[in-house]
Amino acid sequence: MAKVAINLSTGSIQQEEIIVGIDLGTTNSLVAYIHPDGRRPVAINDQGRGTIVPSVVHFPGGGEAPIVGTDAKDYLLTDPQNTIYSVKRLLGKSYQDLGQHAQDLGYKVIDDNSEGLVKIRVGEKFYSPIELSAEILKELRIRAEHALKTPVNKAVITVPAYFNDSQRQATRDAGRLAGLEVLRIVNEPTAAALAYGIGLSPDEEKTVAVYDLGGGTFDVSILRIQQGIFEVLSTNGDTYLGGDDLDRTIYEYWTGQYQLATVLFQNPAAQQQLRLLAEEAKRHLSTHESFAADFAGTTLPLTKATFNELIQPLVERTIASCRQALADAKLTPADLNAVLLVGGSTRVPLVYESVSAFFQQPANNSLNPDEVVALGAAIQADILGGNRRDVLLLDVTPLTLGIETLGGLMDPIIPRNSKIPTKAGRQYTTSVDGQVNLKISVYQGERDLVQENRKLAEFDLRGIPAMPAGLPKVDVNFILNADGILKVEAIELRSNTRQAVEIKPQYGLTDAQVEQMLLDSLTHAREDVAARMVIEARTVAEQMLYQVERFVAKNGQHLTEAEISQTTTGVGELKAALTTQDKDTILKAVDELEELTRPFAERVMNISINQAMAGKKIE
Ligand code: AMP
Question: Please, are residues 45 and 52 in contact by the beta-carbon 8 Å criterion?
Fold first, then answer.
């Protein structure tokens, strides 16, 4: 997004900063920006090398700088041990998370501490997936700077809808390591819909499905777009399903049908070569009926019919996710105005046909499926740059967030598919007399037992005054910002003991860095201010209602009948205002109720309740 501005104090012409949109993909990555002529999103093609940068990093050894992209991809064949691909699958993950998938990679993933985050060994050095992703981002930044002839310091980066907190934070960190200020982490399907131009005019009302089958991940999302507001109604998918898996079916078919064992045995280069040949066959069959190639003296053929049979179960799995996403959104195919295809693997004819058949309408594949997400990210960057003020994005959290309660049970606080940014809380108490510390363990996941979910953080609320069990009142609040990053706080209400939570992401960021990241994300969430203000107004209103209702229940005997009836009317009005989703209406009703109740609140209540009724936030 390049704009020219005149600096009035110096009279000089300044070029406004460019904010790029980046699709950091499992297989391929791209960077896009809004072209000043025509203000259309364009994927950057530096020096005619194409828009797609394979997400592959090669370490030449001897202290030389890593090579990224197509040149690095060539080394998958000749030097697989020093050539890292699909690193996105490892972002924010522990070795335990990877399980059997660790063995499928051509390079070495270190298993020194199965609870910690994975490291990748290249020669004598160890790299984190964040560092490797940063190399890819750096390459994209350099290409953008070279092509646009201007420094690029700010970006919007997309992630799959299923990325959890740790993965989103890891992506942010990778951006920072690459010298980019990450203004926003955006879900890929949201970016894709933007690229298809959906939601850019304020009067538009649409419900769409976004089906994204890339190289390594699969997402389907149901979005509703209303009055310029993007809302993700549901998401579903599989972070271990993509074009790589289609390739693998061909690889396994060939190795099963032909005597390739001796060639492949202990020969990583031959294995990679066969993997690339399988991908070539797949691509070929998107536009042809049959494929054949020579491999180590053996002809390997594949017809489209056989290919379709091989991949049928995988395609069916994606359709099952579509079914679930529709059910979560409580919709039927007839409710959808469009089905959008994203990701290179949607070029496979069986995928197109199956998706169209399931949704009972021809899917839209009019945009280049490789570029869609990056183009949408560029549009999001444009929105953040303040150039499209009427567009507002709301996302959902893909997994439930909650805390561990007695018996190792998961107590959900923010359910999956909740719109973000959001804030939710619940009250807890102690289980033992005289208990002065309360351990709060934060989990993410859908299972009833926390041990089956993913632990995000654990902290102690200390300094609770000794009281009989059940007497302390501990409010635990979850604040999920627009990037899907979580902050947790706990407050003991009787003593006002509070603890700012130290969520320690597993890849070892310092507390100060985490805090900085949270601050960054809040500072830069400019275009969501309106949405957040409504949410904040609602929070104030809900706190007010809670306090007033509690006040009346406790102190009813001190109030006159007229005061009680006025309060009931005021409460009714505030509840009605809450249904409007209009910040000003809600805050006006809050003020009125506050005005109404203040005189008798002052009369009967002590100072602390008085403050609560004045709508003070417990933060
Ligand atoms: P993406 O992650 O969106 O870049 O998608 C990359 C995936 O799309 C890889 O698995 C590619 O093999 C696959 N792909 C790209 N072009 C084609 C094509 N013409 N037919 C089938 N699959 C393709």
Answer: no
Residue with the nearest Cα to atom 7 of ligand 1? 215
Domain-by-domain residue ranges, the chain? Answer: 16-196+368-389, 243-309, 401-509, 527-613
Per run of 10 residues, the mean pLDDT along the chain (length 619 residues) is 38 63 95 90 92 96 88 87 91 79 78 72 88 96 94 93 82 93 88 88 86 90 77 83 94 93 83 91 98 94 98 98 95 96 96 98 96 95 73 59 81 78 83 85 78 78 84 86 77 82 42 42 45 70 81 81 88 91 86 83 56 41
Domain 243-309: CATH superfamily is ATPase, substrate binding domain, subdomain 4 (3.90.640.10)
- Tell me which of 22, 24, 26, 27 to substitute to probe ligand 1's pocket, judged by most ligand atoms within 8 Å of the beta carbon: 27
- The amino acid that residue 377 corresponds to is A
3-class DSSP state of 49? coil
Angle at the Cα of 11 from the Cα atoms of 7 and 16, rounded to 5 degrees: 30
- Indicate which atom in ligand 1 lies nearest the CA of residue 373: 3
- Is the beta carbon of 88 within 6 A of some atom in ligand 1? no
Per DSSP, 528 falls in state G
Q: Where are the alpha helices (DSSP H) in 258-402?
A: 261-264, 268-285, 304-328, 349-359, 372-384
**Measured CA angle at 394 (ends 392, 399), to 5 deg:** 165
Does an H or E element contain 154, and which? Answer: strand 154-159
Report CA 408 to chain centroid distance, whole Å.
27
DSSP SS3 for 229: strand
Ligand 1: which atom is nearest the Cα of residue 369?
3
Exposed, middle or buried by CB within 10 Å (0-12, 13-18, 19+), for 311? buried
The Cα–Cα gap between 91 and 95 comes to 11
Architecture of domain 401-509: Sandwich (2.60)
Instruction: Indicate the CATH number of 527-613 among 1.20.1270.10, 3.30.160.150, 2.60.40.420, 3.50.50.60.
Output: 1.20.1270.10
Question: Would you name the residues annotated as active-site residues?
Answer: 23, 88, 188, 212
Q: Which CA distances in Å does 320 have to 218, 219, 325?
A: 12, 12, 9
Query: How much distance in Å is there from the Cα of 32 to the middle of ligand 1?
Result: 19
- Please give the structure tokens belonging to residue 360: 């009972």
* DSSP H/E element including 288: none
